[in-house]
Design goal:
The structure holds two protein chains of two kinds. By secondary structure, chain A is α/β, with parallel strands linked by helices. Helix content of chain A is about 40%, strand content about 25%. Chain A has helices at about 45-55, 80-85, 100, 110-120, 125-135, 145, 155-165, 185-205, 215-220, 240-245, 250-255, 270-275; strands at about 5-15, 20-30, 35-40, 60-65, 65-70, 75, 90-95, 175-180, 205-210, 225-230, 230-235. The two termini of chain A are about 20 Å apart. Chain B is globular and about 75 Å long. The chains are: A alpha/beta, B alpha/beta.
């Protein structure tokens, strides 16, 4: 049984000119301890699909799916109270902007202990011990002292480590990382990716890595889903995707990488489409 | 003997002074600690480094936004007097800048036509009709159209906005363009378009670029020369091939190692390593 299974998910938003379809019939499944990367440009619906899983979309969004199962349990029609018990405990998410996703009014210690209090019901002493343990696990120096710091006292990389510590606080079965390293420097990106991958291997978490960076995909994923304008273009394991991409869009994306430049101009995605037919909807591998 | 040097920087420095408090002594931050380089006309110098290494401070000094606290800046073999009030209009026109975030660098209440016409209105005595023609012409050059003249920034995508920012920088026919992370806020496919545009414009106007970036794959593609900065110092400086094939400094090596590898061999190696770990 898959850890997370989504069949034919569609998300629509109402706009002045009618319903806009952000995600169009996408099916995704993740196995236990598997790393799935979802790649696409901004506007390809990769984040929206995952926010739908988390139940974090505003009420104006219309979400329809044939099935949305987590460990075989329906998560499409559960009550908000039930969902609150699940989210943050069994399914956790790391967001793109670490500094913006922490609350500036509270210390990071308070914010991590809040998760431990609500989901695990630990007492104050146990919470503090666990928070220190988590902070040292994600490689924050002086964890005891760090607990009393506010987000603005830390760098972007440190804030992202705090976010990761909060996300893994309850040993989630599924971790969704939404562009976890986009806002960070290359050297810090490497540290954060190594950290996430080490935790994934150690805890046997399922991991969904949302990104637009083909380099991050190459370094982390087992399996890859390529999305374009809300549709799934291709699904393949990481090696065959890079070695032998099936859909024209994936080929175009790989050709647009500066390291694959031939001659003195880059192949742009639109130029690539001119010579090739537009990909048919829902092309699968 | 023809000297083709566009830009020369000699031991340039910038210190920032943090005022002290009652019990706190005054602190001086050395953002750029003596950087020197020479750049030929029509070439691209890429400056690489992590945030806080002083690369943007350097860009601000090159574009006269910040005054250097030491060293000399030569443009077209002339020493630039960077003291406030001593800069000639002529000098200002030669150097222009494109900022990182196209969402923040355009005034949301200004129409695109006015964005492009403003430098002309301030620096020249062109008539409004002439300014309009020049702006429309420039819009076509950067891959937009005259129909975009009356639109506002929010009506454009990130890539289009960066094209507008580039067009604005080119309005005064500069010789040197400083690009402060011009593609790091853009998607991969849009990034390719903007990089191609920059290459086209460089050929057309014989522009000299100082290209600031932290993305080594972009740098490898666009640069003729590369400088790596670390804590305000240039730790590595050479032609692209020298730096990429034989990095001298430890930090440069760390940087190369940290860059994700997307070639098939390294993916295969990683997948096999993971399989072996799972079997064990």
């Amino acid at each position: 049984m898959a850890l997370l299974q989504i069949d034919n998910l569609t998300v629509e938003f109402e706009t002045a000119t009618g319903w806009f379809r952000a995600v169009d019939g996408v099916s995704i499944s993740v196995e236990k301890a598997e790393v799935l990367a979802i790649v696409g440009e901004s506007g390809s619906g990769k984040s929206v699909a995952m926010l739908a899983v988390m139940g974090l979309l505003p009420w104006t969004a219309k979400i329809t799916a044939d099935r949305m199962l987590f460990e075989g349990r329906d998560i499409q029609n559960i009550s908000p109270a039930e969902r609150r018990k699940l989210i943050g405990k069994d399914i956790a998410m790391i967001f793109q902007e670490p500094v913006a996703s922490l609350n500036p009014c509270f210390t990071v210690g308070f914010q991590i202990e809040e998760v431990l209090r609500i989901h695990l019901g630990l007492d104050a002493k146990a919470r503090r011990a666990r928070a220190i343990e988590l902070f040292s696990q994600v490689g924050l120096p002086n964890p005891e002292e760090r607990l009393n710091h506010f987000p603005h006292q830390m760098s972007g990389g440190q804030c992202q480590r705090v976010m990761i510590a909060i996300a893994i606080a309850c040993n989630p079965k599924l971790l969704i990382a939404d562009e976890p390293t986009t806002a960070l420097d290359v050297t810090i990106q490497k540290q954060i990716l190594d950290l996430i991958m080490a935790l994934q291997a150690k805890n046997g978490m399922g991991l969904i890595m949302i990104t637009h960076d083909m380099g991050v995909v190459a370094e982390t994923a087992d399996r890859v889903v390529v999305q374009y304008k809300g549709r799934k273009m291709e699904e393949a394991d990481v090696l065959s995707l890079f070695e032998n991409p099936k859909s024209n869009y994936t080929k175009a994306l790989l050709a647009a990488l500066p390291e694959n430049a031939t001659g003195d101009r880059l192949t742009t995605v639109s130029a690539f489409f001119e010579g090739n037919p537009e990909p048919a909807p829902g092309v699968s591998a | 003997m023809t000297d083709n040097t566009m830009l020369e920087v000699r031991n340039i420095k910038r210190d920032y002074e943090l005022p002290g408090g009652l019990f706190k002594p005054k602190k001086i931050i050395h953002a750029v600690k003596g950087v020197s380089f020479k750049l030929e006309r029509g070439k691209t110098l890429a400056i690489v480094g992590e945030s806080g290494c002083g690369k943007s401070t350097l860009a601000r000094m090159l574009t006269f936004i910040d005054e250097p606290t030491g060293g000399e800046l030569l443009i077209d073999n002339k020493i630039v007097d960077t003291r406030p009030g001593h800069l000639t209009q002529d000098m200002r026109q030669k150097v222009q800048i494109v900022f990182q975030n196209p969402y923040g660098s355009l005034n949301p209440r200004q129409k695109i036509g006015d964005v492009l016409g403003e430098p002309l209105a301030i620096n020249t005595d062109m008539s409004a009709a002439e300014r309009r023609d020049r702006a429309s012409e420039m819009l076509t050059k950067v891959g937009l159209g005259p129909e975009h003249y009356n639109r506002y920034p929010h009506m454009f995508s990130g890539g289009q906005r960066q094209r507008i920012a580039i067009a604005r920088a080119l309005m005064m026919n500069p010789k040197l363009l400083v690009l402060d992370e011009p593609v790091s806020a853009l998607d991969l496919s849009v990034q390719a378009q903007v990089l191609n545009l920059l290459a086209d414009l460089q050929d057309e106007f014989n522009l000299t670029y100082v290209f600031i970036s932290h993305d080594l794959s972009v740098v490898r593609y666009i640069a003729d020369e590369v400088m790596v900065m670390y804590f305000g110092e240039a730790v590595e400086y050479g032609t692209r091939n020298e730096v990429f094939s034989d990095p001298k400094h430890d930090y440069t090596r760390t940087l190369f190692k940290a860059t994700p590898k997307a070639d098939i061999e390294s993916i295969r190696a990683r997948v096999e390593k993971k399989k072996a770990a799972a079997a064990a």
